[in-house]
Amino acid sequence: MAVAKTIELSSTSTVSFDDALKIGIARADKTLKNVSGAWVKDMKISVTDGAITEYRVHMLVTFVLE
Q1: β-pairing, 51-64 with 35-48?
Q2: Where residue 1 falls among pLDDT bands split at 50, 70, 90?
Q3: Is 40 a residue whose pLDDT tops 90?
Q4: Is the pLDDT of residue 15 over 90?
Q5: Is the distance from CB of 3 to CB of 41 less than 8 angstroms?
Q6: Which CB contacts under 8 angstroms, 24+ apart, belong to 30-38?
């Protein structure tokens, strides 16, 4: 039987939401063992002078405890 834990994190990118997700998961995987999935809770953008300047993703990352 496995036991999992979930943490909340946010990551940002100047490229896209997809890039923000990849950055967040890659960073979580450096710190946590057994990352098994994520749920995107919220997505946001920052706008300056009518142009998108930042993509932000707020997610719940799940990892299995040893």
Answers
A1: antiparallel
A2: confident
A3: yes
A4: yes
A5: no
A6: 32/7, 32/61, 32/63, 33/63, 33/66, 34/63, 34/64, 34/65, 34/66, 35/61, 35/62, 35/63, 36/4, 36/62, 36/63, 36/64, 37/61, 37/62, 38/62
